Amino acid sequence: MSLFSTLNVGASGLGVSSTSLSVIGDNIANVNTTGFKQTRASFADFMPQTMFGLAGPSTLGTGAAVNRLTTLFGQGTLEATGNATDMAISGSGFFMVNNGFQNYYTRDGAFYVDPSGFLVNTQGMRVQGFNADTAGLIGPVLADLQLDTSAVPATASSTITLEAMMAESADAAGAYDNPLTTDAANFWGVGAGGITITQAANDADFSTSISIYDSRGTAHDVTVVFEQTGPSDWNWYAVTDAAEATNGAGLPFGPAGEAFQVASGTATFDTAGVLTASTQVNTAGWTFSGAAATNLVFDYTDLKMGGDTDSVTSLQQDGNGVGELLSVAVTSAGVISGTYTNGEQRVLGQVATATFQAEWALDRAGNNLFAATVDAGDPAIGVAGTGSRGAITGSALEKSNVNLEEQFVNMITAQRTYQANASVISTADESLQTLVNLV
User: What DSSP character marks residue 215?
Assistant: First the structure.
């Protein structure tokens, strides 16, 4: 090999060392870039040159070149952000975003909801996922993920479910006091009124109250009062404020605080205190002011009697008032749900994730994005936590996977390699100068 060839070998060494320093510099520069994956440079020797010596033919290297720049998709540390729409993947997979023309893939889950309700990244590209309908059912079609941030409409209450234990009310002589019977005969709706809800509750053997909603989403209190009439028999009455109940002319039935009878019935228990039968009669000809007619069903399936103390285990109703979106949360499967000011929760959509057979072959596209390639294979699209796709953590972002200490060690090595190759060139140059001086 001539001295000129030696200069070329040294120059190739400078080139690969320079590339190595560039890769290391890029890694260090992105140490704080969300979702960044570090790159590793690998090198290979040039095609060796065949030489013929006294012992026969042999090969001599002619330098080095860059073989491949490989992206390392190791897991980065997850960091809580407090922003509900931020997401991080723990494990394999990428979020999918679309710029209107093609899909890109990213580990950067810094997402926002734009004015149209679309979930977007910092470049305004729309996150891909599965949209939910107004009932919260997630569809199967992959599309731009759009969250319905509008208010939840009111739903009129239709069922009240009571689970309770009612104490035996007989006195020492086994008699039953029935002051509620007189009250009930005078409730508005069936009588001339004059009985307050407080009086009815005080005279009852058992009472409890719950707020329900009319068709406009306005809340009203309903009080259920029970009176034991025999060893196994009870009468019950459901009442609301007479000033809130209106007749066919739209006028309230009575003064505020007085009881209007919504429904009444009976309840019968066996010797073990288990409900065996119940009846219900709804009062006709009334509505809550300005709302559609209210017809409530009272479910006493889990009502029991016995013991010395009344206790309510559960009292529920199925209506709700108008609710504004208060907050969102993301599950490990990427399901986005909203919590509303009325306490309701609704599924808004689900984020899709994708994996590749050869993720190392993805192309870096800038802005924390990767583009699919033929070598990477087709994306396997689904939801987080299925197949080989990792789980999603909400209100968190994935930090860069760059190990700064490791990069500094690599930088020192690359620097020394650069200096050594420069010395090869310097030595060859001096040798050439000596050769020229001999002429």
Answer: T
